[in-house]
# Entry
Amino acid sequence: QVQLVESGGGLVQTGGSLRLSCAASGRTFSRYAMGWFRQAPGKEREFVAAINWIGSSTYYADSVKGRFTISRDNAKNTLYLQMNSLKPEDTAVYYCAATSGMAVAIKSGQYDYWGQGTQVTVSS
# Structure
């Protein structure tokens, strides 16, 4: 079992930056590939970014490529999402997730554990 707790969300103006964190506890964090997803009101949950177990491979949704950076610190059991050049369309609840597969995963069904989410609101 892995417990995930996101933090770092908030209200920011267009063009601003936020860094989300996801603290993991329970089983060995480094054994899991990790991902970030988001869900806007009235929309389905969508993939944002993913990283493999050691941090050597990453993958991004086209909508965030070049603006967002996923990273992890296995010594601190923490996953990060640095978000720059934020746009109003980035407004959503952001979730981190863990999969027991160690490679990058981009489908929500591949993930075994989810956090409760953190709200990100970008004002225009």
Notes: The chain is about 0% helix and 50% strand. The chain has a mean pLDDT of 96. The CA atoms of residues 12 and 122 lie 5 Å apart. The longest strand covers residues 18-26.
